[in-house]
Amino acid sequence: MNPKSTQPPLGIIEGFYGPPWTWEEREAVVRRLAPHGYGFYWYAPKSDPFLRRRWNELHPRTEAENLSHFAGYCENLGIGFGVGLSPYEIYRSFDANAKQLLKDKLAHLRDLGVNRLALLFDDMPGDLPKLAERQAEVVDWVQAEGRFKHLAVCPTYYTWDPVLDRVFTPRPAGYLKRLGELLHDDIDVFWTGEEVCSRAISPGHVRAIREELGRPVLLWDNYPVNDGDRMSQHLHLRGFTGRPASLAGQVRGHAINPALQPTLTCIAAITLAESYRLGDDYCYMAATRKAATEVLGTRLGSQVCDDILLLEDAGLRRLSSEKQKILRERYGRINHAGAREILNWLDGRYQVTDEMVQTQ
Questions:
Q1: Closest by alpha carbon to 334, among 296, 306, 308, 307?
Q2: Going along 108-201, which residue ranges are E strands?
Q3: How many structural domains is the chain composed of?
Q4: What confidence tier does 2 reach under pLDDT thresholds 50, 70, 90?
């Protein structure tokens, strides 16, 4: 008998660039995934300016009401809801004015029913002395002031991938180890693996990061996310691979950054739960077909799996106009949210431009 592993806490971290999901789509995703063990949801879309570039402003009334409603919706399903806040480079000058602005923001989020917070320092330059100390100062202050049930942090350097050093300046020596030493033990730290979008996340790598941080990591898994100019040309439909079930006992939780297509993202999400449930018995393509049938129904699910070479591997730029026409006709005959997402993808409505990435 092949060994089975206990499933770690699973969740969604909505942290992609590009066109956001609707609130109705978010509700549909959590309804679909809750029965598969998805127990937490971090709301952190790059397109929400009031969590990023305009973090020091409060959400307008309508958006605030929607956020509050969704927080309650998740909690009623037994799903822990949190918000990812990116106070842009606040660690450069964490003075009295910055603290007051942050205090007002935290109070605003609490009033909306948000009782879990992630401080996200990703995609920010790290070119200043004592980066870990400065960021830890902000986190300590928020922990004391914010009174949140759960606090998590995404470091500026959240992977060993050297692309971060090229884009956001070279990381300070010993940054991650020092940050782990300074943060309180009950604060979770996000980590994406050996790369920003890791092909695999091995137990050996997770053990090494755990030793460096002095705590288990909270995985921020950048699959099936498909933002960015290149990835948005492809639908990410295949089941998870390279995430062995033995990770379960080594991480605080496993959060996936979803695809731009909310219905289709559930296919891969369900396979992650299956991979933990089945352990060595997991077969990723069989799991993909099973999940596609659950999410899309027998007919559409089978068709999507049959077309996976076109939808996931070839992508829009390699599809001839004739092939695109065939796909439009094929999926245009099916009245289902998943089919409509494929049609919108074919029409370029999910395209993520470099400008979006630079300005969101």
A1: 296
A2: 116-120, 150-154, 188-191
A3: 1
A4: very low
Contact 96, 107 (CB under 8 A): no
Q: How far is CA 27 from CA 15, 41, 69, 267, in A?
A: 16, 11, 10, 16
Contact 41, 82 (CB under 8 A): yes
Structure tokens at 146: 């914010």
Whether residue 244 contacts residue 276, with contact meaning beta carbons closer than 8 Å, is answered with no
**CATH number assigned to the domain comprising residue 41:** 3.20.20.80
- Does 307 map to a domain? no
Which tens digits make up the pLDDT trace of 84-118?
999 988 998 999 999 999 999 999 999 999 999 99
CA dist 296 to 7, 35, 304, 340, Å?
A: 25, 16, 9, 11
Q: Tell me the residue range of the domain where 284 lies.
A: 10-294
Total Cβ atoms within 10 A of residue 333: 8
Residue 67 resides in a domain: yes
pLDDT tens string 114-136 = 999 999 999 888 888 899 999 99
Domain presence at residue 71? yes
| pLDDT(152) > 90 | yes
Question: Beta strand 38-43 with 10-14: parallel, antiparallel or unpaired?
Answer: parallel
- pTM score, two decimals? 0.95
Beta strands in 37-178 (DSSP E): 38-43, 80-85, 116-120, 150-154
pLDDT tens for each residue of 7-55: 999 999 999 999 999 999 999 999 999 999 999 999 999 999 999 999 9
d(CA 247, CA 244): 6
